[in-house]
Specification:
Elements (H helix, E strand, L loop, with lengths): L1 H35 L1 H32 L4 H41 L3 H22 L17
Helix pairs in contact: 3-4
Length: 156
């Protein structure tokens, strides 16, 4: 009895295997014909175009929703990051100038102790004053054009 079952199962499985192979062959032929036809290329292009249009539409809806809720958007964060970068650059330039001024002040007492001539002291004072004036315009530059995002919400 066990042998008959095995033979029956084998026959049954072979039947489905042959059925699957014939289906696979006919489907591959049909798919190959469809992919080679110009209609399939046109439909694929149309599908890609519609997908892009839908993506753009969804982005527009999200942008409008965020604007109405006064939530910051990506470009707001980009502007803030740019402003922070500019501030960091200005701060580093100012700290370098401060260090230069401090080194000039350290050198100034050493020159005084040598001879104490008034002309040398006057020259050093002029250099220090020039460096200070040079540092002021950098600090007084106008603020960047980045606008801060609105944080208030409309009353509902």
């Amino acid at each position: 009895m066990a042998d008959k079952r095995t033979e029956g199962e084998t026959y049954y499985l072979n039947y489905f295997k042959k059925l699957y192979e014939s289906w696979e062959k006919s489907m591959s032929n049909a798919l190959e014909l469809w992919l080679k036809s110009p209609a399939s290329a046109a439909s694929a292009q149309s599908a890609v175009k519609k997908a892009q249009e839908f993506k753009d539409y969804m982005y527009e809806i999200m942008e409008r929703t965020l604007k109405n809720k006064y939530l910051p958007m990506k470009n707001d964060f980009d502007r803030i990051a740019e402003s922070l970068d500019n501030l960091e650059d200005k701060l580093s330039r100012l700290s370098e100038r401060i260090e230069d001024i401090e080194t000039l002040k350290v050198k100034e007492p050493a020159k005084k102790s040598r001879k104490g001539s008034k002309s040398t002291e006057a020259k050093t004072a002029k250099k220090t004053k020039a460096n200070l004036e040079q540092a002021k315009p950098a600090a007084a530059k106008p603020k960047s054009k980045a606008k801060t995002p609105k944080t208030r919400r409309k009353s509902e």
